[in-house]
């Protein structure tokens, strides 16, 4: 084998040995796609992303507390989006009955992409099921391993930058630390102990991860669970169907699972309508039945991510509304004037869908815009001529559930590298990256410095769907220029 083949085989085996894999069956797995070498970013720019992510965490927490704003923001899409209709109904019931008791634990990933002309722009908020932090850390560790074990190959494909003081002298890249597993686990463990101590319970705090049945992205989740085990936290995995049959109420609004108290609930499901469907329950009522679990959770004394309010606050609809507000208007959500002006430039151009914005779309060119609905995960964006096709299928009543976002045009890497997928390497000469910054807030208070690691997903510039799990992207890491 040549040097590339040796490095690919070695790195794939490293990925399997360190759980950087997707589950295929109970007896098999497939490694997560990854880049051979990391992306580079200017230190000041990365620090700016971290600062912005922390402020967005504060902003989204404040919005989640503003019942009137959420109801006014989401009501226009409730008639045509069944998931948001159900969530808004539960939100209104919780607001009217003043029955919320859960402590909001906002584990959020804020995704950015760097536009060639406009600089870093917000792609989206992920306030529910904000995953892949552990895989982001593993990608950083894998790149450090490749740099040490296959130094010559790494140096061939990593982006080099030259010293300003000594022209022609290459500067060795400096890896950016990524401790997402530890930081996310710290925030969850802190909230778990807070609830446990409040009730003077004996034994280990208990953490419940709500998951989809037959989850194939299980190892990313397991890495977080194992870190919690190391901190003395008991972990359980449950679907909404299982919770429906096993939850009850204890003394002092304690939430019981099979008659044992639980302290934290973390949703890795619940962001799509099918998560609330179960054919074993009468079909006419199954979604309503499983949706009621969300309300029951919030009516008990637990720490919870994501609350219904957090999910609505981090929606594309709210993002679109915020993007059209002046910086001063963001101060109503508790930001200082300086903080508001700091994050305002990160909002990209987003337009509500109506006759005037469609006319603007046609005038400025289809290739300059992306049509988005309210869905989370891959497959919810429409590009190019497909936008016209999609618009023809929509009734005007459905327009409120969609928005137009100015397409971000990032600058590709200056140096080609490889993506390793299915055990094989493909050379990519125009790699672009999306950077997600994790933050953790417990009832509005950020843990540590608010930043809890990062996730980089890279893809060829001509690929539209860049998700690692559902598109053509690959996990990546960062070095300073």
Care to give the gist of this entry?
The chain has 481 residues and is an alpha+beta fold. Strands 5, 6, 10, 11, 15, 16, 23, 24 and 25 form a 9-stranded mixed β-sheet that branches. The relative contact order is 0.21.
Strand percentage = 25-35%
The biggest beta sheet is recorded as: 9 strands, mixed
Question: Mind telling me the C-alpha Rg?
Answer: 23 Å
User: Which percent bin holds the helix content?
Assistant: 25-40%
Based on secondary structure, the structural category is alpha+beta
Low-confidence stretches: none
Descriptive report:
It is a single chain. With 481 residues, the protein is α+β, with helices and mostly antiparallel strands. It has one domain. Helix content is 38%, strand content 26%. The strands form seven sheets. Strands 5, 6, 10, 11, 15, 16, 23, 24 and 25 form a nine-stranded mixed beta sheet that branches. Strands 17-20-18-19 form a four-stranded antiparallel beta sheet, with helices on both faces. β23 and β24 form a beta hairpin. α9 packs across α10. The relative contact order is 0.21. This is glutathione synthase. Its cofactor is Mg(2+). One of its GO terms (molecular function) is glutathione binding. Belongs to the eukaryotic GSH synthase family. Its EC number is 6.3.2.3.
Question: What's the arrangement of secondary structure elements?
Answer:
Elements: H1 3-17, E1 21-25, E2 28-31, E3 34-35, E4 39-41, H2 43-64, H3 67-78, H4 82-97, E5 103-115, E6 119-126, H5 133-149, H6 151-157, E7 161-162, E8 170-171, E9 174-175, H7 180-198, E10 206-210, H8 218-230, E11 234-238, H9 240-246, E12 247-249, E13 255-257, E14 260-261, E15 264-267, H10 283-298, E16 303-305, H11 308-313, H12 316-323, H13 337-343, E17 350-352, H14 355-364, E18 369-372, E19 381-383, H15 385-393, E20 403-406, E21 417-421, E22 424-428, E23 431-442, E24 445-460, E25 474-476, E26 478-480
Parallel strand pairs: 4-26, 5-16, 10-11, 10-15, 15-16
Antiparallel strand pairs: 1-2, 3-21, 5-6, 5-23, 7-8, 9-26, 12-13, 13-14, 17-20, 18-19, 18-20, 21-22, 23-24, 24-25
